[in-house]
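We emphasize that the prediction below concerns an isolated chain of 444 residues; any contacts that depend on oligomerization or on bound cofactors are therefore not represented. The input was used exactly as deposited, without trimming of termini.
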Amino acid sequence: MRRHGGERKTRDRKFALAEMEPARIASHRRVSVWAVTLVVVLCQRVSDVPPPGESSRPSMRGGIEARTADVTVLDSLFRGYVRILCCYSPVPCIIVRKRQSEVPVHLPIVPLIVAASFTPTISSLSSEPVVIAHGTGTCARAVQHRSSAGAANSLSDTTATKAALMQADRALGDAVALRGQAAVAALLDSEAAVLIPGQPILHGPGESAPALHSRYDAPAVYRWTPTHAVASADGKFGCTVGVSTFVDAADTSHTEYAGRYITCWSRGSDDSWRIVAQQRADRQAPLGNHPLDSTLAGAPHSATVASNIGASALRSKIQDNEAAYGVMGRSGATGPGPAFVAYAAEDAVLMPGFELARGKKGIEDAFKDWPSNAVLEWGPDKRFGGGSGGLAYSTGNSLTHDSADPAKVLRRGHFLTVWREEPDGRWLYIFDLGSPRPPLADGR
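Result of the prediction step, given as a token string:
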């Protein structure tokens, strides 16, 4: 009887504890979440404090720069504390990764951590590590969900990268106002592709610098304003687009023209941005009839997925994609329009002139008056192309000729295309911009 009575008491106690378990877990969740929140906020505040005797100064990428040494102790404590809280927090495996030159960004990290406590969708990421990267001037660069090798990587927050790209573009514009095109040449990657009207595709700063100085330095006037940026999911690559004004020194009428441009950037191991491709279409229309945009309405979004593919393989894939795109374009019975539509993302922006064609329907409409006798041919320049993290670029030459007489050239051009990987694995373009060029060595 005593034995059975003891078992009954033990069983009753277990039932009581089981009933208390949800409340106890919820309590642990609330405590751990707010503890993590407090540490994150304190880390943010302290890391933004400049060293004693030194005033705060704006960073090139936004936020406030602070010496890493000033946050080392806090960073160490933060890492240790978070590892302990991981045992209780519904946000698993929080890793604080030290990177001295991480891009400052003020992410809504607190709401995200709190949301993870109560939102099954976010909590379902618990099978993979969540990374909070700690760097100078900020407590968190991004929150990423890393998927298994071989699968497409999920989106990391691209807000920081886009802000950094826009700032780099604006800073370059300011530098050009002081130093001329030498500032552009200084940022060109050794393998950069530079496309400007009246020139073939230029390779690297050696070929590009003389042409840039000749066309754009005083007495010519060339200015630009970035209106949008797209970024790779891994933060290593991105492109800026914008509007420009140009007064050609060779134009005796001194007409000011409106134009557009695309600049693609790659982030180096030192965290600095360098230009890997730039296309300028600087004389698309007289400025008087075309007010300049300050933002790009209906702009394409950044990369959301990224296959695990090496740089060389990605470059080949993009070039093959561009080649297939060109084959479809020149073989179309009704002109190149169907190819431009088929390879366009839903939010693509085509820049056939200063007026833009947005989305598949807008792009289709842009080709409705295509001359029946005109054939547009194009293909990739195999010297160039690449990207990272679900975003890439390609460039090449185009030729429009008469269908009845292929030797009759109607227009020569070169182009820069920005590609984005889609969730279904396809690569579709989100920006396409061309400008005129001289004949090639073979006369094409």
